[in-house]
């Protein structure tokens, strides 16, 4: 995924009210912008951090700048939670996930379960279908280890249970974690911050839900899905 037009560099002043941030552009202008991430963004809101913003001229937008990238832990991290579905699609179409490769049809945002939508539906006359739920990952507390979630997500646990239901009715279902940082070599389900999600992940895997994690390479010009990384399940079974 190429950033077109190019991103605008800035310095973060603060992120607040979940949807807003203040920053100083390189030309000295103070701006307030939209933060396309309603999560906790643990470790990614340090005042004075180098950030990169997309700029939008649409007259109906209240804020013309949106928070896209931040430099943290000596790497660039993507914070926009609207991008992982697109990155997941690119990874699947590029064949980076062999178990999800070479399907005839890829659809986005399809209804399923109890009034839910699946992020990606793969269909093929020979292979059947796979429901793919995509999650954005940018949290880390240990060098080389990405973690999800970074806060409690009851909605995420609900989706895991619904995907287990799909498997038990004869469909394939897969979780795809998109890691928007290049400094992580594996991913761990963060059961200490959200035991409910950890238990739901255990249930889903036991019922046959598949799980994959893709690491992305990032710079101020692009985000590129790069490679599969392993999911570390150590300690989950005790939850």
Poorly predicted sequence stretches spanning 5 or more consecutive residues? none
CATH topology category name of the largest domain: Trna Endonuclease, Chain: A, domain 1
Number of strands: 16
- Which structural class do you get from the secondary structure elements? alpha+beta
Q: Give the distance, in angstroms, between the N- and C-terminal Cα atoms.
A: 37 Å
Q: In total, how many domains does the architecture comprise?
A: 2
**Helix fraction?**
10-25%
Can you tell me the CATH architecture of the largest domain?
3-Layer(aba) Sandwich
Mean pLDDT: 94
Described by strand count, sense and barrel closure, the largest sheet is: 6 strands, antiparallel
Indicate the proportion of strand residues: 35-45%
Cross-sheet strand order for the largest sheet: 3-2-1-4-5-6
Overall body shape: globular
Number of helices: 3
Rg from C-alpha positions? 18 Å
Short description:
By secondary structure, the chain is of the alpha+beta class. It has three helices and 16 strands.
């Amino acid at each position: 995924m190429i950033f077109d037009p190019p991103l605008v560099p800035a310095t973060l002043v603060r992120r607040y009210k979940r949807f807003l941030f203040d920053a100083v552009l390189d030309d000295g202008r103070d701006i307030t912008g939209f933060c396309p991430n309603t999560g906790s963004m643990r470790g990614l809101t340090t005042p004075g951090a180098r950030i990169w913003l997309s700029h939008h001229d649409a007259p109906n937008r209240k804020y013309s700048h949106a928070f896209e990238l931040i430099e943290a832990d000596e790497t660039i991290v993507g914070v926009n939670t609207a991008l992982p579905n697109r990155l997941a699609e690119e990874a699947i179409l590029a064949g980076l996930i062999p178990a999800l490769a070479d399907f005839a049809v890829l659809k986005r945002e399809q209804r399923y379960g109890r009034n839910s939508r699946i992020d990606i539906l793969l269909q093929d006359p020979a292979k059947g279908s796979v429901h793919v739920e995509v999650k954005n990952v940018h949290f880390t507390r240990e060098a080389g280890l990405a973690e999800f979630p970074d806060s409690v997500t009851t909605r995420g646990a609900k989706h895991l249970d619904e995907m287990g239901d799909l498997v038990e009715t004869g469909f394939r279902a897969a979780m795809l974690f998109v890691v928007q940082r290049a400094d992580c070599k594996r991913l761990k389900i963060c059961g200490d911050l959200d035991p409910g999600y950890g238990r739901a992940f255990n249930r889903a895997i036991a019922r046959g839900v598949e799980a994959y994690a893709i690491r992305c390479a990032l710079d101020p010009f692009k985000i590129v899905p790069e490679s599969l990384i392993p999911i570390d399940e150590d300690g989950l079974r005790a939850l």
